[in-house]
Structure formats: structure tokens, C-alpha cells
Amino acid sequence: MRPTGLHLAIALIAPLCLMFAAGYAAAGPIRADFEAVGIRPGPFGINSLGVVVGQTHVDPGDGSHIIEAVAIQRPGGPVETLPIIPNTMHVISTRIIDNGNVYANVLIGSDELSFLLSPDGAVTQLGAPGFELISIAAVNQKGEFVGNTGHVSTPMAFKKSADGKFMSLGGLTGHDSYARGINNLGEVVGGAVVGFDEGYGVQHAFRWTEQDGMIDLGVLAGDGAIGTRFSSANDINDLGVIVGSSGTINGDVQQAFIYDETSGMRPLLDDASLFSYAIAINNSGWVVGDAYRDDFSDRFGFLWTPELGMIDLNSLLPEGADVNIIAALDITDNGFIVGFANVDGESTIFRMRVSAAVPAPGTGATLLLAGVAVGARRRRADQ
Question: Which residues have a Cβ under 8 Å from the Cβ of 126 and sit 6 or more positions away?
Fold first, then answer.
């Protein structure tokens, strides 16, 4: 494991030789600050303060087995172990929001249970009658969270609203459903089984709103695709833009997609030969994920912006750095990215902050991309 003090300050001095859409000039410098995080590679999340949450190992000192515990690391700081959840066998996944609340799924015995770890040190098991065994997939800044139930033979997507109520989101055809993302308006995305092909459940991406319920978003169309197509939505921003992946059951095709109500579902990346996954999107429309060739060669984490298209995050590293960013898994509105990287041959979690200044169309003004387009949806929501 890399020391927590490893810190590479990166500045891409030369402008990217990419052109914007009509009305934009070539991009100005992109800045990226890269830091290897001392938390063990595994389940993790990040908030807009740059605090990464994940897992660590704790030696109780009494000769018994090593304990897995939830831990956080602030930018430039040490790993801080949070209160240990009793009887935890494995920390499965974690999320953190801006107020410091941490949400953790852990394995206790044969059950996956969910807990809230508050900044004051309190540990609270989450759930309600009928929702005793739950797995949390995503949390918004209001503390609303979504995931799927695990206490029945058919897992179903659920949502816990700001008023504390748990509700089942149902499915598209009565089969399994899995919630994977929620925005600050309470809109939910995920995947739901619509049928079966040779025993495999075929999922379609869905969007759920309180007004419309669960809507099937369909799949990417594509010539030459072999096998039954499926799709899954992974995240949604406050503008209602959705990202995920669509492919074939036999694995010949896997493409990242972006979806909005105007244009529908479309490929995110121009290179259809890449296997690609879009995992998270922020309110500026910046998307992160990972891509690779069919032999798993050339795997890399990427950032995609509406103005620049896809950027291999490794291109932002200094020349000669012994770092390979292989996946980017989350991005905040102010440009913090978290994911996996190999640093000096060792697997680690990384934290990176990116920003870019570009000229506004038809003006001499400069916009910070991390702040673009947030207000439009809020105004629409208030009307």
C-alpha cells in the first residue's frame, strides 16, 4: 500500500488539441491534482470536500482475527478509523455526503446490513419493517438513499425519502430491479429485468420519479451487435441527465451511454471498439468511468465533458510518472474524482481534482466548467 503522503501536483500546461462544439475555441489548460489515498483498495466514495471513505484493517491486539472497519481520509491527512460496527465480517460498500454522514453496507453473519455512521460517533442500523435487509447503492445530499432489498427471493429497488419513509419502486415486469443512483430531486435510476435469454435475466435501464413511476429507457441500438441487448443506468444528475452502459448478453458489446429527455439514449464515446462503462455524472455534465479493449489491454479511467469529449485521465499525469489510472468511479460537482490506480506497481485508491477554464460562446468571459449548467434545472424544478 502506498503511503498516504504521496502527492503529485499536476498541471497540463499545453492546451489540449481538441476543439469544442460550434462556438467554442480550443480548450485552455486543464489542471489536475493527484493523490494516492491510504485507504485499502475496495469499496469507497467521496464528497465535495474531497473526503474519501472506504475500509481499513484493525488489529484488536488480543490475538483474534483482523477486523474490517470503515475509514475516511481527508485531503493530505491521515487515515481515520470510524467507530467499529460490531460483528462486521466484511465492509461491502460505503458512501459519504457533504455533512460527513457515512453510509456503509457490511456483512454480519450471512446478512448484508446497512448502517449510518454520524460525525458525532453514533452508529445506527438503517431499515424499517419490510426493509430489514437492505443494500444501499447511492445517497443524495438530503440523506435520501436508494438500493435494493435482500430479504426476498426477488430483489426489488427501494427508496428512503427525506421524511424517513421507505418505499418499494417495483419493477418493469414484476422481476428483479436494482436502484443505482439518485439525484437531489429524488429521481432514481437503475436496472430492471424485462425478460430472460438462456436463463440470464435481461435488464433495461430505468428512471423512476414520484410523478411517473418507473420508466423503461430501452437500450442502445447498433448494427452488427450479437445477442440480446441489455442496459443499466448508474447515475443521474440534477438536470436529469443519465449515464450507464448498454451491451449484449454474450459480452461482445459494452458501451457507455448518456441519456436525456431531448435526445434519448446515445453512445457516450466515439470509439465503439472500446468496452466502456459510464459510472457517474455531476451537475456540469462531466462523466467518469473506465474503458478497455476486449483483451483487457489499455484499460484506463476517463473523464468526458460535453465540450472536450473523452479525456484519458492518464494524459493529465506528468511524463514518466509510474501511475496507471484504471478506473474513475465518482465525481463531485467541484471536480473531485475517486477511483482505482496502480502506483509504482501497487493497487491503490486515488483522489484527483480537475478543473478547466473555457471561453463562453460569443463572449470574452471565462466559465469554470465545474459550475456550468447547475442553475437551469433548479429554475425548472421551481416553476
Answer: 103, 114, 115, 116, 134, 136, 145, 160
The verdict on pTM exceeding 0.70 is: yes
Q: Phi and psi at residue 315, in whole multiples of 5°?
A: -70, -10
Decide if 241 contacts 281 (C-beta within 8 A).
Answer: yes
List, as one string, the DSSP characters of 176-204: -EEEEEE-TT--EEEEEEEEEETTEEEEE
- Contact yes or no for 128/117 (Cβ under 8 A): no
Whether residue 307 contacts residue 284, with contact meaning beta carbons closer than 8 Å, is answered with: no
Residue 345 grid coordinates: 506497481
Half-sphere exposure of 115 (CA within 13 A, CB side): 26
pLDDT means over runs of 10, the chain (383 residues) = 33 27 34 78 85 88 79 92 92 95 94 95 94 93 93 81 94 91 98 83 93 95 61 97 90 90 93 91 96 82 93 89 93 95 89 69 37 32 36
Alpha helices in the chain, H assignment, sequence order: 374-382
Instruction: Quote the CA–CA distance of 201 and 192 in Å, as a whole number.
Output: 9
Cα separation, 167 vs 112, whole angstroms: 19
Beta-strand ranges (E) seen in 17-118 are 30-37, 40-46, 52-58, 67-73, 79-81, 90-96, 102-108, 111-117
Res 30: pLDDT: 64
Q: Would you say 169 and 149 are in contact if contact means Cβ atoms under 8 Å apart?
A: no
Contact 257, 267 (CB under 8 A): yes
Q: 180 and 145 in contact (C-beta within 8 Å)? A: no
For the record, the C-alpha cell of 318 comes out as 506528468
Instruction: Determine the residue type at 96.
Output: I
Cα–Cα distance, 144 to 166 (Å, whole number):
10
Predicted confidence at residue 312, as pLDDT, reads 93
> Are 186 and 236 spatial neighbours (Cβ–Cβ below 8 Å)?
no
Concatenated DSSP letters for 220-256? Answer: ---TT--S-EEEEEEEE-TT--EEEEEEETTSS-EEE
Give the span between the Cα atoms of 284 and 10, in whole angstroms: 22
pLDDT at 63: 65
